[in-house]
Design brief:
Distance between the termini: 12 Å
Strand order of the largest sheet: 3-2-1-4-5-6
Helix content: 40-55%
Largest sheet: 6 strands, parallel
Strand content: 5-15%
Number of helices: 15
């Protein structure tokens, strides 16, 4: 069921500002985030927890046989993930990076997994501003002070430590086979049926994700749903990095920057330079972005997109209030809610 979540009191499926109505024939393209929308995130969180452990204690001291225990200790159940996600910290690399930095700040000499220690890490995270840029800056500086490293060492995407985080995460997620345990957010047959029907209606399906190409393609191929997505309408972390290099960007183009959704919306019609310079026609018109996290919403709105929130991310139904307060055009329990917009 559609939810009345626009703070101005208008019906959520007839938001006059967005210009889209129920039945929504004027949407010609849907761009999906992956994690928490199409793919479940549990394996990603597990890999991130194992990554934090290896970074702190070394691979030989990680008890991979107790993944649930490692996850629950490092992330205090899911409270740490919730605390960072709602502040716009989006990818699991970012989750591992920030958790590590705060952990080093709390106790630079930590020798083993300790629940009380990570409760303090959580408390620190919960005290941080609701702004991803500030969260990162505070975390970098906190780690730098106790490790003697320059702050630049820890900076996401630019610092040396970022590459280490990515490599360690890839070991746990890819080389150990955690990726093969991924599951979709809704039953696969339902998801496949939804995508097939949407495509048959002439709606172009795209993706805007913080995953690199390899980690994006695996579930699409494994679940046999790759064919439903327009290849030209996919924006990934790999595209983001390439654009930053090609355009010599001085700022990160990862979410909550709108680049990845703009890339998907452009559908290959414009170069990255043209996309970032705004040298194009209105590529957001008739495009709906579907996401589960604050970073998705901020990114979509920065790009000028209509937004459909789904409550299948780490915070689940607790995100409803955030999306209501900030004026998301649509809120669904999961992606199957799109049927009410497009298939009725």
């Amino acid at each position: 069921m559609l939810n009345n979540s626009n703070t101005r009191g208008t019906n959520v499926n007839a938001n006059s500002d967005a210009g889209h109505s129920a039945g929504s024939a004027c949407f010609s393209k849907i761009i999906f985030d992956m994690d928490g929308v199409i793919t479940g995130e549990s394996m990603y969180w597990d890999a991130a927890a194992l990554t934090v452990c290896e970074l702190l204690f070394g691979r030989e001291n990680v008890d991979a046989s107790d993944i649930d225990g490692v996850h629950d200790t490092v992330f205090c159940g899911r409270d740490m993930i919730n605390a960072l996600k709602v502040r716009g910290v989006n990818t699991n690399w970012d989750l591992a990076l920030v958790t590590y930095c705060i952990s080093k700040h709390i106790d630079p000499d930590l020798q083993k997994l300790d629940k009380e220690h990570f409760k303090k890490v959580l408390e620190f995270a919960q005290s941080l501003p609701y702004d991803a840029t500030e969260v990162y800056d505070i975390s970098y500086n906190a780690a730098a002070r106790v490790t003697g490293r320059d702050v630049s060492y820890f900076v996401r995407e630019k610092g040396e430590f970022w590459g280490i985080v990515q490599d360690v995460f890839a070991y746990w997620f890819v080389e150990t086979g955690l990726y093969a345990m991924e599951k979709p957010c809704v039953p696969l047959e339902k998801l496949r049926g939804l995508l097939e029907t949407l495509k048959a209606r002439g709606i172009v399906l795209g993706i805007g994700t913080g995953r690199p190409d390899g980690e994006l393609k695996r579930p699409l191929e494994m679940w046999d749903i790759e064919e439903y997505f327009d290849k030209a309408s996919i924006g990934s972390y790999t595209d983001t990095v390439n654009a930053e290099i090609a355009c010599k960007s001085e700022v990160s183009l990862a979410k909550p920057h709108p680049y990845v959704f703009l890339k998907a919306a452009a559908g290959g019609r414009y170069t990255d330079k043209e996309i970032l310079a705004g040298s194009h026609d209105n590529i957001t018109d008739g495009v709906l972005v579907v996401g589960d996290a604050a970073a998705d919403f901020v990114s979509a709105k920065a790009g000028g997109f209509a937004f459909a929130a789904v409550l299948t991310g780490v915070s689940g139904a607790d995100m409803r209030g955030y999306f209501e307060e900030n004026g998301a055009e649509y809120i669904f329990d999961d992606v199957m809610g799109l049927r009410e917009l497009f298939l009725n």
